[in-house]
Amino acid sequence: MMKRWHVLKRLLPLMAGVVLLLSACGRADLSTLNPQGAVAQEQFNLMKLSFIIMLLVVIVVFAIAIYVLVRFRRRPGDNKIPVQVEGNHKLEIIWTVIPLILLVILGVPTIQSVFALSQDYSKDPKAVVVNVTSHQYWWEFEYPGLGVKTAQELVVPIGTKIAVEAKSADVLHSFWIPALAGKIDTNPGGNVNRMYFETPAKEGIFLGKCAELCGPSHSLMDFKVKVVDQASFDNWVAAMKAPAVLPEDPAIAQKFQSQCLSCHAVGDMGGPAFPNLTGIGDRETVGGILVNTENPKYQNEGSTYDNLYRWIKDPQAVKPGNQMPKIDLTEQELAGISKYLAEYKLNYESETLANNDATDDSQESKE
Questions:
Q1: Domain membership flag for residue 350
Q2: Is the dihedral of CA 304, 306, 307, 312 positive or negative?
Q3: Do 313 and 302 touch, CB atoms closer than 8 A?
Q4: Residue 94: inside a domain
Q5: CATH number for the domain harbouring residue 266
Q6: Average pLDDT, the chain
Q7: Tens digit of pLDDT for each residue in 297-306?
Q8: 227: closest CA among 112, 356, 102, 126?
Q9: Which pTM was predicted?
Q10: What's the total number of domains in the chain?
């Protein structure tokens, strides 16, 4: 028994090292070490500067410590006390001035970046202003200058400054797009926080998350940032303002209006309280986490649009604690509504977006 304990004690440091190593593994688009925008790049440069300074300090301190341990170690028969440096004014000045210099080297660019990144671009005519409102557990995006409101997918044009004004509708959340910008808290009580980020000069899809523990489904509170060309963005804005398109089947249309439009909106119809469903068929995900694709697994339940079907059938099973109730619908109604929503596409993209990584975010990959 004692031998096993000694072996375990020897393995513990190795296991701890492996845990630390694996903790750095993860998705590339969830890493601040893979910047894709100007703001994220500036923040990354600050991190590199901080790391270089810390590494330099660690190397110097360890080098001095090792030198002292080797040079002044006690040798057999040698009881001579080394020369003491206490009160040496030259050394005291050196180890006081050097940290001050390092602080200035780190502090000056940090202060410059903090003030530069805190600029308010909401009045800039070239910027796209987005009012971000966080909910348990979804994201609402309103473009006040364009008269558009959507959810879960922030559509923005390439090479543009995005001025974000963020608040919360319930508890404290945090708006975070690792590859494009830093994060900012969304506070309840009408308190608005502001930030901005710049979109890259190419199309792409970037993952955003809530970075503040906000409830049982905090880890499932994802959103997408879809960067498109200017023509596609203009098409999207126009399509979002177009009149609503209801299901062709009168029975399904009546059920959708009575059960769904009391809370949700499509086009110019419905309530504003919960996620706008206009163009949901174009979105990468359902509920922020389920891939918006077909799956033969659910064909025998009346619909090939499995994730929309699953979400409508029992949203609490997908994202516990969210505010969408389970609706009393027949299998035929479930299939009809999920098919209608899956086919509700705006078809605004002038080109196909590359590097669609939404599959990695699916609920199936977590199960």
A1: yes
A2: positive
A3: no
A4: no
A5: 2.60.40.420
A6: 83
A7: 444 444 446 7
A8: 356
A9: 0.79
A10: 1
